[in-house]
Write a structure and sequence with these properties.
The complex is a heterodimer.
Chain A: H1 2-19, H2 30-37, H3 49-54, E1 83-87, H4 93-105, E2 109-111, H5 131-143, E3 147-154, E4 159-166, E5 208-217, E6 235-238, H6 241-244, H7 246-259, E7 274-281, E8 284-296, H8 300-310, E9 314-320, E10 324-335, E11 338-344, H9 351-382
Parallel strand pairs in A: 1-2, 1-3, 6-7
Antiparallel strand pairs in A: 3-4, 4-5, 5-10, 7-8, 8-9, 8-10, 10-11
Helix pairs in contact in A: 1-5
Chain B: H1 5-10, H2 15-27, H3 30-44, H4 50-53, E1 55-57, H5 67-75, H6 94-119, H7 137-206, H8 213-227, H9 231-240, H10 247-250, H11 255-258, H12 273-276, H13 298-306
Classes of the chains: A alpha+beta, B mainly alpha.
Keywords (chain A): Nucleus, Ribosome biogenesis
GO cellular component, one term (chain A): nucleolus
Family (chain A): Belongs to the BRX1 family.
């Protein structure tokens, strides 16, 4: 099964390489970059998944320890994290555009075609019955991605669910069936998750979060006038609730993994010109993307005056680039696409329930009207005006 | 305690499956879950240097009153409740919410800039650094067009509005000017009347010793009249006295004319005044009042023609 998936993924990867600029040395495919540094890794696409795990793509300057807190930030591409960006089959145009926007904003993202789990991953299928989770995990495994952004569409594109999470992809665990001892992201070093041995669920890695995504505005909208360099590293701005509320702290880690561009990434740009804002309001996470516009004064005199006023020689302002959307967290899982539930949003109401209630309300209109009609009829019958004995007298 | 989320989500219509999940939730006490969350939190922290993550927490809290914050406010002392520190914003007020987000992001940008300079990461892009942008030039041109169109629209609306205002103002000014003129005229006339009255009063007190120009005018007019050759006028004057100004009196009957039927001609025509009084010497006039028997009758005329 894994082989088949790999074959599916192959042309996609090739397309991606074609898209890049031939002249720019930096803009190389990351896997190739990996190979340049760690030369013992053989050709990526031909290698079976297991060999990929055995070959650790950690560059020589790094100490052999796999934990990330030893990463030295010297401007080189050290934090080699890849993000898998994909969606389920049957998404509508709006979601597709959003996904395209997210892809342009995440240079460390790997593109994957729309996912149709079909029969293989259904319960009782050859894929082990893991559903989307198993399929996505497997693809992430094959593409060597550490984090996943998976946009799932349900009910004919009415509801969008965004899955963000760290995958079980770890270079140290040779087989997904065995419980991982250490992992690349350091998540599993001290926590052990029980894995059902029979299932192909790779619920190591993690955490993963399921969001209900609403209020989508894509970058194509003409109201968002900002623009930024393609691949520039965003400042990830969080509001204070991400520092105080427990589950939001976890969400923050995942968001940093997903949306933060690794330093020194070949496709990234060396300057900072955009900020991504995550705000916790009304029980939801609101996401905004701004361009940072810095205007330095044209003359020294003006600059001096400005410095006196604001303390900076430049005035900073923001322009929204887009996309904007709202993430309503539903559930946080310990593993990747599964595992123990760490947090549940109690106030989340499934959009199905809302829709069915609305429909019921509409259906009840008829029943109510009929009831009222019957009631009136009965009342009219019950009220009989007594005969006036004097009605005939004065005639 | 392994739940596959996909299977859970897939049979969301299936009440049986949901019930099973509910029970597992109940089994899992909140405390354990919180503990698990904290452990996971520790594990999830990759302890990367800031230059790798680029995450900033803006110190100023958002000014929204969500369910969480309200709960906290209720639990705490009341002085947190007054909005002196930051005014409370409704999350669903789009404009205010976006402004709050903007402020928050700006704050963290300033923080991040400082951190960047500390770490030695260049922040602002130099002018000569060209790079591919997220939005294509075509798209930006579209945005620009739209902006221009919008400003044009706004300008047009403004201009129309100001034009409207100006016309209204001009109208008002015109009306004001007219009323001012009328007022001035009225004031002038009333002044004149006042002066006239005071002059009259002065005259009466002087017992006719002072003569008005008005009297002179009348006299002059009278003199002029006396000089003209209007016989009818002269006769009327003779009969009724001078009273040209009283219109109605002229045509009133007096004793002599009341029963005078001399002017009556059953065949038509009107006798002039001059014919009324038989004794009235020189009363005949040439014009007006119908010329008596100047023209022969129709039969006479026919006869004369056939002759």
């Amino acid at each position: 099964m894994a082989k088949k998936r790999r074959q599916d993924a192959e042309p996609e990867a090739e397309i991606e390489t074609e898209e890049e600029h031939p002249g720019n040395r930096d803009d190389e495919e990351e896997e190739e970059d990996d190979e340049l540094v760690s030369s013992e890794e053989d050709e990526d696409d031909d290698a079976p998944p297991s060999s990929k795990h055995l070959a650790a793509p950690i560059p020589p300057p790094l100490p052999p320890s796999s934990s990330d807190d030893t990463i030295q930030s010297d401007g080189k591409y050290r934090n080699r994290r890849r993000l898998l960006v994909l969606s389920s089959r049957g998404i509508t145009a709006r979601y597709r555009h959003l996904l395209e926007d997210l892809r342009t904003l995440t240079p460390h993202g790997k593109r994957e075609c729309k996912l149709d789990v079909g029969k293989n991953y259904a319960v009782g299928g050859s894929g082990g019955g893991g559903g989307y989770g198993a399929a996505v995990n497997e693809i992430a495994e094959l593409r060597g991605c550490h984090a996943v952004l998976f946009l799932e569409c349900r009910k004919r594109g009415q509801d969008g669910y965004l899955w963000l999470g760290r995958t079980s992809h770890s270079n140290d665990s040779p087989s997904p069936l065995l419980p991982p001892t250490t992992s690349d992201d350091g998540a599993m070093t001290d926590t052990t998750t029980k894995i059902e041995q029979g299932k192909h669920l790779m619920i190591s890695g993690g955490p993963s979060i399921k969001f209900h995504i609403t209020n989508i505005h894509t970058m194509d909208e003409l109201k968002m006038t900002g623009n930024c360099m393609k691949g520039s590293r965003p400042i990830l701005s969080f509001d204070t609730s991400f520092d105080t509320i427990d589950h939001l702290k976890l969400v923050k880690h995942v968001l940093v993994d997903v949306f933060g561009t690794p330093r020194g990434h070949p496709k990234s740009k060396p300057f900072v010109d955009r900020v991504m804002g995550f705000y916790y309001a009304d029980g939801k996470i609101w996401v905004r993307n701004y361009q940072i516009l810095e205007e330095t004064a044209s003359t020294a005199k003006e600059a001096n005056e400005q410095k006196k006023l604001t303390g900076h020689a430049h005035s900073t302002s923001l322009i929204e680039i887009g996309p904007r959307f709202v993430l309503n967290p539903i559930r946080i899982f310990r593993g990747s696409f599964g595992g123990q539930t760490l947090w549940v949003n109690e106030s989340f109401v499934n959009p199905n329930v809302i829709r069915s209630m609305k429909k019921k309300e509409e259906g009840e209109k008829y029943v109510r009207r009929k009831g009222a009609e019957n009631k009136r009829k009965r009342r009219d019958e019950s009220i009989v005006v007594p005969k006036d004995p004097l009605s005939d007298v004065f005639r | 305690m392994v739940e596959s989320p996909s299977s859970e989500e897939e049979d969301e219509d299936d009440t049986k499956g949901e019930g099973a999940i509910r029970t597992t939730h109940e089994q899992q006490s909140l405390a354990t879950r919180a503990l698990a969350l904290r452990t996971a939190l520790d594990a999830a922290d990759r302890r990367l240097p800031w230059s790798e993550t680029f995450d900033v927490i803006a110190p100023t809290p958002l000014p929204f009153v969500g369910p969480m914050k309200r709960k906290r406010l209720d639990g705490e002392v009341v002085d947190d409740d007054d909005d002196d520190e930051y005014d409370v914003v409704d999350v669903h007020d789009d404009l205010k919410r976006e402004v709050a987000f903007y402020e928050n992001a700006l704050e963290s940008v300033i923080l991040a800039r400082e951190k960047c300079t500390n770490v030695g990461i260049p922040f602002a892009r130099p002018d000569d650094f060209f790079a591919e942008m997220v939005k294509s030039d075509d798209h930006m041109a579209k945005i620009k067009d739209r902006l221009i169109y919008e400003t044009k629209k706004m300008d047009a609306v403004e201009r129309r509005k100001s034009n409207k205002e100006q016309t209204a103002m001009a109208k008002e000014r015109h009306a004001h000017r007219l009323s001012e003129k009328a007022k001035a005229k009225k004031a002038h006339m009333s002044e004149l009347d006042d002066w006239k009255r005071s002059a009259e009063r002065g005259r009466s007190s002087l017992a006719g010793r002072v003569r008005d120009r008005d009297d002179d005018d009348d006299r002059l007019r009278g003199m002029g009249r006396g000089g003209d050759n209007n016989k009818k006028r002269m006769n009327a004057n003779k009969r009724y006295g001078f009273g040209g100004k009283q219109r109605g009196r002229f045509k009133q009957n007096d004793r002599a004319t009341l029963n005078d039927m001399s002017g009556f001609k059953p065949r038509g025509g009107f006798g002039g005044i001059g014919q009324k009084s038989p004794g009235g010497a020189g009363n005949k006039k040439k014009s007006g009042g119908g010329g008596g028997n100047k023209r022969p009758g129709k039969r006479a005329r026919d006869a004369s023609r056939s002759r």
